[in-house]
Amino acid sequence: MSRTCIMIAAAFMAAGLTSSIAADKLPSLTPLTARDIRGITHTLPEPKSRATVLIFIAHDCPISNSYAPEISRLAAKYGSRGVSISLVYAEPDFTDAKAAAHEKAYSYKLPAFTSLWRTLVRATGVTATPEAVALSPEGAVLYRGRIDNQYADLGVRRYHSTSADLAAALDDILAGKPVRTAQTKAIGCYVSANG
Fold first, then answer.
1. How many domains does the chain have?
2. pTM for this structure?
């Protein structure tokens, strides 16, 4: 199935999502240990971080790739404030070597995971790439959804985003407040844990 068909299917499936779902209705992730593409062992969520953000991407998703500079900017901004940000390549048969080449091509300097993406998709409920999940140190999903509203729909890109959803969620978390909007609809390429 072509990436375009998958993107269209994702739009129809995601259309039923609403941003009014409360944080207590979101799933949680039982902490697990995993090796990133460089062989470094991590516990997810990172127990010493104030929050752990997993950003699900796909190397051949144009929307994911367009977010590379913003993802790197967010990692630099929030990394110094105790937030761990990692990439999850949500695609079958994608090797660590391919992920390392993709990271290099897009100037990523983040931990990245390929082998346990299905487990993470099932645990968090992610449906598209790019999609971000912010976790508490205990594994509660505090936010799930888009990075921002740069894409109004598939093929409809705003000149500038008007809502920095992931950044707003992280600001709430770091301020010790409940996340005001715990879920937003991610626009991008369809993800299935069965794929």
1. 1
2. 0.86
Reported in sequence order, the residue ranges of 82-186 that DSSP labels E, i.e. its strands, are: 83-89, 112-113, 128-129, 131-135, 141-145, 151-153, 156-157
CATH classification of the domain holding 60:
3.40.30.10
Within-domain flag for 168: yes
Mean pLDDT split into 10-residue runs, the chain, 195 residues: 40 38 67 95 95 98 96 97 97 95 96 94 94 96 96 80 94 97 95 79
Q: Which helix (H) or strand (E) element contains residue 168?
A: helix 165-174
Kindly state whether residue 195 falls inside one of the protein's structural domains: no
Q: How many CB atoms lie within 10 A of CB 167?
A: 17
The answer to whether the CB of 189 falls within 8 A of the CB of 129 is yes
